[in-house]
Amino acid sequence: MDIEFEPIEILAKAARILDDLKISWMVGGSFASSFYGAARFTGDADVVIDMRSGHVEPLARELEREFYVNRDAMREALRDRRWFNAIHVESSFKIDFFVLGAGPYDREEFGRRLTPRASSPAGTPLVFKTPEDSVLRKLQWYRLGGEVSEQQWRDVLGVLIVSRDLLDNAYMDRWAAHLGVSDLLEKARGEAGGV
Hints:
Blueprint: H1 7-20, E1 25-28, H2 29-36, E2 44-49, H3 56-63, E3 67-68, H4 71-80, E4 83-88, E5 94-99, H5 104-111, H6 131-144, H7 150-162, H8 169-179, H9 182-191
Parallel strand pairs: 2-5
Antiparallel strand pairs: 1-2, 3-4, 4-5
Helix pairs in contact: 2-6, 2-7, 6-7, 6-8
């Protein structure tokens, strides 16, 4: 029997596991920018986690009930502060788990995460990075990718336009300078109608 899974349902499964293991987390990437900006389909989800060495085995064990994970990749991600993925076996939907970085912006961003009124269809509250941090990270990835991803740029513009009344512009200016993306932020604001 074929069962259709919505990406948000799969994300909620992972969220419940993280909550049960008391691993702090937040949704980022295109899920977050779609929540605050222009909605679009995405084939994966990005989740930032505050994972410690004692979390690797219990997290792997719980994820393996419905996901394919690689413990060695998890350990490497923890060691290098990078990412590993978990692939939902029945749907092939991928979740990229980004281990929380140690830099000042990483900590600031994580400390500002929000639990908006939205939740998954199963009622699991979803924790998102803020709209400001969605913009800043998207700009950072856009720059690191050679400034060629039209989708990253559209995601930034979508958040700037849709969430314009929610944005803390002073916060974005401060961290854009720190991340070296002030020029991109100003360009995006111009294209978004002077946010």
